[in-house]
Design brief:
Elements (H helix, E strand, L loop, with lengths): L14 E5 L2 E4 H21 L10 H21 L4 H19 L13 H30 L9 H36 L4 H54 L1
Antiparallel strand pairs: 1-2
Length: 247
């Protein structure tokens, strides 16, 4: 049973309860349900972690996920993933779980709502300068907005805003369009095609979670790369000096 009709664009339009200006829609309900599920699931999986040779299936799955995310972050940023894993990993897992649960009858993915995707994009928008300032300092981070010339300042600011908008709209558009296509095909041919489209929808949901996390990491890495480049140049200079002394 689908809570959303073909006319509904967003789960925000599905209202479960309303009292005056206060309302409880599908986006809020399923977002909080997902957060509770993920918190309880994390607690159940991690409460009995073991270092033995024989590990539980859940711990094995957890270690594969975490190691995979660490490897991707390291490959993208060329830095140690420790400080980025918590934020980027949480984004990826939330979007992934939200999209994968789409096969559950009566469930509507919160990521099919522009309010949810906009909130996630705003988190990335805030995280980029936070990581940038932590790695490069306030002056070093702000300096990039006037490079190579001060006339680039408005264009750099517009670039920051436009990529935040693109993150939100891309995720919302892909998930919303997939939901609508399944609903339309279900109305026309309710037996075979919806099964195939649901499978494709799950694959699309996984891909969209991956793309969102990768783009978030790319934006954060671009804000922190200057310090890394400075450290690499300093190290190269020290190596050249050592070679000169040895020579």
């Amino acid at each position: 049973m689908d809570l959303m009709s073909i006319k509904d664009i967003s789960p925000d339009q599905v209202i479960f309860w309303q009292w005056g200006p206060v309302s409880l829609n599908a986006t809020i309900l399923f977002t909080w349900a997902l957060m509770v599920f993920m918190v309880l699931g994390s607690w159940l999986i991690t409460r009995r972690l073991s270092t033995d040779v024989h590990l539980s299936r859940w711990q094995n799955l957890l270690e594969v996920l975490v190691e995979g995310m660490r490897k991707e972050i390291r490959n993208i940023s060329r830095q140690e993933p420790g400080s980025y894993l918590y934020f980027v990993g949480t984004l990826f897992l939330f979007i992934l779980v939200s999209n994968v649960f789409s096969f559950v009858p009566g469930y509507v993915a919160p990521t099919a709502s522009l309010s949810t995707t906009a909130g996630l994009a705003i988190c990335v928008f805030v995280a980029v300068p936070v990581y940038g300032i932590l790695h490069r300092g306030l002056t070093g981070y702000l300096k990039q907005y006037v490079e190579p010339t001060v006339f680039m300042l408005p264009f750099n600011i517009m670039g920051e805003l436009s990529r935040t908008l693109a993150l939100a709209v891309r995720l919302f558009g892909n998930l919303m369009s997939g939901t609508k296509i399944v609903a339309i095909i279900l109305a026309l041919a309710p037996i075979v095609f919806p099964i195939v489209l649901h499978a494709l929808g799950l694959l699309t949901g996984v891909i969209q979670a991956y793309i969102f996390a990768v783009l978030a990491m790319v934006y954060i890495a671009s804000a922190t790369r200057a310090r890394q480049q400075t450290e690499e140049k300093k190290k190269q200079k020290e190596n050249r000096e050592e070679d000169t002394i040895d020579g």
